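S.,

As promised, the zinc ion run. Input:
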Amino acid sequence: MWMRCLQLVRHPAGTSTAAALALILFSAGCQGPALRSSRAWREPPAASAPTWVGQPLSWDKLQAIETWLVGVGPDQEPQRVPQAELELAEGRLVLARREAASLSPSQLAIRLGASEAGFRRVLSKVDASSLDRQRARDGLNGVRALRSGESITAATAKVAPALSANLHPRAEWGASRANPARLTRHMGTYSRVTIHHSAKHTRDIGNTAGSYREAIQKIQKVHMRDRNFGDIGYHFLIDPDGRIYRGRSLDFQGAHASGNNNVRNLGVCLLGNFVQEQPTSAALRSLELLLAELRGTYGIPTNRVYGHMEFTATQCPGTLIDWVKRYRARPNR
Ligand SMILES: [Zn+2]
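Predicted complex:
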């Protein structure tokens, strides 16, 4: 199991070659957890792609990325280095978050330090894309949040610890890379929020964290493959256990309320079909927390929170619309 707990360390000069890199062990308490997403849908890698591309998060995947980075990878495919660095750093962050309770403070510090260094390497590359930079900045916010319990929705905002502990990055659900050429950059400030359901009944989704992650992957696949979106349409998703997942980057307009209704409109989707079932109290609690955070960050009043059916002819989000209307009638806090 210790083989799974490798950490990449670069020489202080930070420059470059395989010779300047070494693999060291850092973990006495590394557990190498059995991750549950092995059944998850994954993008078929191109014939020449490294073995780790499209694989769900695991210690084995992170080790494969490290091996690729210190081997011939960067020479053969320099354009893939930012993706490798980001997946490695995000993966370390996700696993550190999952295992934080069982790690000593020094172990957690080392693992977060390795994650932070990876995000900083991406930001230091002059040719990194704006999307890669945003992912790296999101990652640094996540590192900061895990260190301090502060917000990862906005670096400067104060947030209930319950939300930051519960906000899961894209790597957690195995997101495919967004295609920025098919995304519209968000302009101005967000001024409203629209609530959706995923329309698939929870009995058909399953009731494990792995089945929820898989359901979100499928939503992204349908949005990108069948609807030609550049990414999953929603900015956030919430599962029946109350986990909140990051969807589309907040740098990009959502694709969830049809046409111009998406302008400056945050999209939040709860897994389930609330025409046929009720949302769980855990999901509603998380929706409350997320709305409070988003409204606080962007200055959105309660009466600018909507259900999808208020923009277009749809049953979405079922009876959750009654909750939305009650929410909207509340005084601003
Ligand atoms: Zn909807």
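The chain has a mean pLDDT of 81. The longest helix spans residues 105-124.

- D.
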